[in-house]
TrEMBL record:
Domain of life: Bacteria
Lineage of source species: Bacteria, Pseudomonadati, Pseudomonadota, Alphaproteobacteria, Sphingomonadales
Pfam families recorded: DUF1272
Protein name as annotated: DUF1272 domain-containing protein
Organism expressing this protein natively: Sphingobium indicum BiD32
Length: 74
């Protein structure tokens, strides 16, 4: 199951699990759309491709909440 990280690792923008606009690599490094574009859709940590993260809504989100651990290192 995806961790659904709450923020962009590059700029700190909030990325709610129930909204589109987050991009992840296979290790779940997470970036907002502008940062993913600036990174040419490549993860700077592993070199993997950044893909659209699916959203999680309703009962799925209630039963499996998103992570609250932020990864932006500012």
């Amino acid at each position: 199951m995806l961790e659904m990280r709450p923020d962009c690792e590059r700029c700190g923008t909030d990325l709610p699990a129930d909204e589109p606009g987050a991009f992840i690599c296979s290790f779940e490094c997470t970036y907002c759309a502008p940062c993913a574009e600036a990174l040419d859709d490549r993860c700077p940590n592993c070199g993997g491709e950044l893909m659209d993260r699916p959203s999680r809504t309703g009962k799925a989100l209630a039963g499996n909440p998103a992570s609250t651990v932020r990864h932006f290192k500012g």
